[in-house]
Amino acid sequence: MRGLQSIKSRDFRRFPLITFIIFMFLINNSTANAETIRRLIRTEGDVIVESYQREIGLSNLSVSNIIEDRFGFIWFGTQVGLNRFDGNSTELIMKNPFEDDRLVHNLIQTMYYNGEEHQLIIGTYQGISIYDIHHDSYENFTVEENGLSNPVIIALAYDYEKDYLWAGTMEGLNRIDLKDHSVKTYDIEGDVVRSLLLDSQNRLLIGTYEGLFEYDEESDRIMDLAVDTPTNFVMDIKEFDEGTITLGLWDGGVVELNRDNEITKSHFFEDNRIYTVTKTRDDILWAGSWGGGLFAVVDNDILNFSPENSSYPINNPVVYALLEDKSGSLWIGTNGGGVNKINPRKRDYRLYAYDPDEISGLPQGRINSMLKDQRGNLWVGVYNQGLSKIDENGNITAVELEKDGVLVDQVMAITQCCEDQILFGTNHGMFSYDVEQDGFNLLDIPFREGSTESTSIYAIEDVGNEEIWIGTYSGGAYRYNLTSGEIRNFTKESEENQRISDNLVYDLLYDGENIWIATNNGLNVFNIEEETMQTHVRESGNRDKLPVNSIRTLFQDLQGNVWIGMTGGGISLYQGEGTFKTYTTEEGLSSNVITSILQGEDGRLWLGSHEGLNILDHENEHIFNLKEEDGVGGLEFNPAAFKDEDGSLLFGGAHGIVRIPEDYQLLEEIVPSIYITDVKIYGESQSMDFSVLNGLNSTFPHNDNFLTFDFVALDYDAPSQVVYNYRLLGFDNEWVNARNMNFASFSNLQPGNYEFQVYGETVRGVESEIASFHFEIGTPWYFSNFAYMAYILLLGILTWSIIRVRDSFAYRRKNEQLSLLNRKFEQANKQLEYLSENDTLTTLYNRRYFNQKLQEYIALATRTDSSLALIMIDIDHFKSINDTFGHHQGDEILKTVANIIKSSLRRETDFASRFGGDEYIITLYDTEKEGAKEVADMIVEKVEDLNQQPEMKEKGMKLSLSIGVTEKEKEDNHVEKLLVKVDRALYSAKEEGRDRIVVN
């Protein structure tokens, strides 16, 4: 089956106010030169909408609010708790029902970030929590304790000058004086306060179901502004531009008001039930609706992001929250679909790709050659798959070329020749396509002394006057006249002026005077007029010569420079007089295997390689790498490359055809922020009173010398591919490459001063600054200066024999201490190893171990062509069990179900993990979904047996499970894709009534 898929810092701890100002400056200036979302959505199909759901650890898929703090961490307020996201993992903060000084309630409706104090003000369904992030402490305000007008907090605003916190509830407005904690309530028309804003004039604007109001400080009253809006339901109030107030209205779209409260602009959408609005720094207005998705007002156009729009998909049509972070990405919180993100650094440049579900389409394989003719047809030669033609409408036709009844399966070279025909170099000779006649002819070229035997052709170059040059796999190069039939062969066996360095010719280039011949063993330049041959080969240690002899591709830029792409040598620029300037991975290339070269309209060179695309800015000596994350589809690019008449660049690779637009702009490199987030001693976290430990100093007792540092670099583009390097000054001589591991451990540290340093490097090669933590391991008393003075005095008083006894005693005591420390180290190491892999409650493997192990199982299954199945299990109505029987009984149920799952797994390769809360997941290697269904049935049977026990009946408790089962398809090579499938199966089980198994 073949087919087509058309894819249209340092230290912020001591000066909170200064830090806040710096943070706001970074937000307003960090992306001044970056490509904006406006450019993305102006090119249909380029936008990549990312999805974040349970796989990142979200506690709930209804995300009501999104905040970015001054350090760059993203906070999600959900209907089941608060989540802090660092790009790799999510920290969950939940209410503890037995503690009054923690989060007041799990259902979060709104949040406000106080950047000066690094506090989150959280509005919930049971009041307000002010969360001091550094100190992990809470100050709560409720109806019962503080006299709030209603427990449901819908809107928040903070007056920094007066230290007033304003809270909108289901029953009016509340003013909380944070100096004395007094609360004053205000009645208001419509009762329900949906939104609050302290604008640039320090006016408190209030949106309710009865319109827009203002708090009058002089009279201490709420005044109706009587704005003539399309509806009175004011859901959101924002001031994006000073003096202009933007209102999101329920069933009324979005309107903008001037200082006189007059409507100056209105925006109406397919769904006008607007819940939230924002404006990004590129002046795009975004409106989140209650059921119609997300709307973007771009110039005079309105674009809709919704689950039904394949070009602009989001997970759910109800949009709760919007946030543009300091890198320019737009985060979208939905009601039940989790979070989406539009990242201007992630675009999809794929034009055509192999699709196994399409019968007629682009074949699968490496793309050897590519050319677009004058009629707009794109000709594509695919390794072992022959020739395909793609017309202007994207329709693909397989073209059958044959010689003597044998189908041609290799088309290595395609060239436009003589204006009205196209030449195809194949493994069975050369074919000519007449554009006017729409027909193919096999050219009878007398290769090798008049023989008509088929020859594999790798390159064709038109030099004009009906003359072409031909490069072959084993017969050298030919100079051939299409009219007269005159032919001349250049091989390594030829006479001196015709001799080339090797008979395997990869590419040819005509520069107007010379023919450049790229071979597998050197570069040859033939002067046509003088008929002289010059050969260039590698000279050991000479950087002015070619670095290797395997020449893969040739290119002449608009300035007349000749560039040489090599296998293993990078790319070289010919500088004249036999000298070259070479760029390799040392200069920034992603790979030294260069397969294709094109030049953009701005003069920069684009290089296809085996590790993505490279952009070489020769003038500024800068190289930028594009990987799969940048939308280029894959990493391995082949020789096929073509510059279209509109200036766009087409590259062929094993993953299909990529189109780079003419107006492509390099995005500003965002430097990731890196933070040391925790210090552990023997596996126990130390309370530092700061959530970020950069630049701190600390002292530890001499026996607390087993330390672990946790750290994270905030890169939301490709966080799993951040590479970390660390060192401990005073211990390490060199930087340690920790790859993707974001922690470092040190044991048996001797007394002294140390500095832990760490930095991260993104997938694009951008390095963070260095984060550091200073600490001292204290000196034991018996090594103090006073002790040493006493020892010296004793040496003068005591006899030699007494000194020997003392030395012997001290030696034994030191050995005992070292032995004790070693035992503590071994115990801590075992504990750390166990905790890093296992869930402490159920003793099953934890989520982190599952993610790591599943990726290994997927790779193994793909490599061995083995099956792999997943079972996702959810305990039905578990919240009801907790509420009815208490959390202790709930924990017992969790352990019981875990034991049932463990007892149902018979093979060592099968493993079960606690996926989160009351969810479990089972990985079954070399098992298809039918076998997985049998395991699921066994688990259900054991749960039914458990329900029959007298203890369960006596309590009136009955357990049931919702189970989803799926298996890995051949193309499922990513963890996220497999998790989405099994999650959908589990979701179907719940939707169909729970207490059942659904196989996807």
Task: Supply database-style keywords.
1000 residues; alpha+beta; Methylamine Dehydrogenase, Chain H; Immunoglobulin-like; five-stranded mixed beta sheet; 12 helices; 73 strands; 16% helix; disordered N terminus
Strand and helix layout:
Blueprint: E1 4-6, H1 16-29, H2 37-41, E2 47-52, E3 63-68, E4 74-78, E5 81-85, E6 90-93, E7 108-114, E8 119-124, E9 127-132, E10 137-141, H3 143-146, E11 153-159, E12 164-169, E13 172-177, E14 182-186, E15 193-198, E16 204-208, E17 211-216, E18 221-224, E19 234-241, E20 244-249, E21 253-257, E22 263-267, E23 274-279, E24 285-289, E25 294-298, E26 301-305, E27 319-324, E28 330-334, E29 339-347, E30 350-354, E31 367-372, E32 378-382, E33 386-390, E34 396-399, E35 402-403, E36 406-407, E37 411-417, E38 421-426, E39 429-434, E40 439-442, H4 447-450, E41 457-464, E42 467-472, E43 477-481, E44 487-490, E45 505-510, E46 514-519, E47 522-527, E48 532-536, E49 551-556, E50 562-566, E51 571-576, E52 579-583, E53 594-599, E54 605-609, E55 612-617, E56 622-626, E57 637-643, E58 649-653, E59 656-660, E60 673-681, E61 684-685, E62 697-700, E63 707-714, E64 723-729, E65 736-739, E66 743-746, E67 752-761, E68 771-777, H5 785-797, H6 800-837, H7 847-864, E69 868-875, H8 878-885, H9 887-903, E70 911-916, E71 919-925, ...
Parallel strand pairs: 62-68, 72-73
Antiparallel strand pairs: 1-30, 2-29, 3-4, 4-5, 5-6, 7-8, 8-9, 9-10, 11-12, 12-13, 13-14, 15-16, 16-17, 17-18, 19-20, 20-21, 21-22, 23-24, 24-25, 25-26, 27-28, 28-29, 30-59, 31-32, 32-33, 33-34, 35-36, 37-38, 38-39, 39-40, 41-42, 42-43, 43-44, 45-46, 46-47, 47-48, 49-50, 50-51, 51-52, 53-54, ...
